[in-house]
Amino acid sequence: MDEYIISVKGLNKQINKKSILKDVSFSIKKGQITGLLGPNGSGKTTMIRLLNGVIDESSGEIQVLGKTPKEDGAYIRSQSGIVTESTNLYHEMTAWDNLMFFSTLYGIDDKERAKQLLIDFEMWEHRDELIGSFSTGMKKRVSLAKALLHRPQLLFLDEPTNGLDPEGIQMVLGYLKKLNQREKITIVICSHVLHQLEDICDAFVFIKNGELIESGTRRELEEKYLKEVIVRVETGAEPSKGTYNGFVYEKVDEHVLQFHLSSKNDITPLLKQLTSESWVHGCEIVNRHLDALYFEIGGDKHE
Length: 303
What we know:
By secondary structure, the chain is α/β, with parallel strands linked by helices. It has 2 domains: 4-221, P-loop containing nucleotide triphosphate hydrolases (Rossmann fold, 3-Layer(aba) Sandwich); 227-287. It has helices at residues 44-51, 69-78, 95-106, 111-120, 136-148, 166-183, 218-225, 267-277, 290-297, and strands at 4-15, 18-29, 33-37, 59-64, 80-83, 154-158, 186-191, 203-208, 211-217, 229-235, 243-244, 247-253, 256-261, 280-285. Helix 7 (218-225) packs across helix 9. The two termini are 38 Å apart. The mean pLDDT is 91.
């Protein structure tokens, strides 16, 4: 039986008589990286605050680490690392002094852990510089280090890649994957940038306008929503216009053909036929990306 570290059932939250979350239910397995995804204003940050007991639900049930956030929020927060869009660091202190200060608050004395985290996030050489002099991306990396000081069981990240350049995004996401594998930490990542998370997450929870529109693993979502498989093939073959072995296709570029298949099982015979006629240098399913699945599930392409 799978062990769920987070369980949400029929969750509702109203603020100032406005409904923020409506009848939301999902579960997260221990050790998973889960993407809590949706457009800005969909209720993702409110969900994180509810899971940590910072605010109370209006109705419904929440279990985190076998506890109820409303009653045991302090315990849940002691076992969690949290990184919000505001970094919550002291700007008049250095990066190192910030980590030492928060280590004291966590009740730990592990300078090696702090050093290793700064090294991992490529901030060790900046340890004696004031946080106030850092770029947004540098602050975000120190904030991530701070959240991991006490070796939490859970890590909540709210838009963790905001303010990072492409190299910084790749570095942070790569480190989070290694951290998850090494320390078995359960990670929940809130984001509206779906394509950044499709290769790091084990499962996804999609929220739109405060409502759960779908949840599941990538494979589960593909099996449910990928009704047509669109395959782009780089090949020297030049089939007759419009159809090829019964498959509809269009030419999208020189030596690039796009085929419309009924299932992934059609890919192998298609490639076998193409390679019997000419070279094939690449093949990609172009509508299996997370963005495409989100739109199939019910996302708004204009958001």
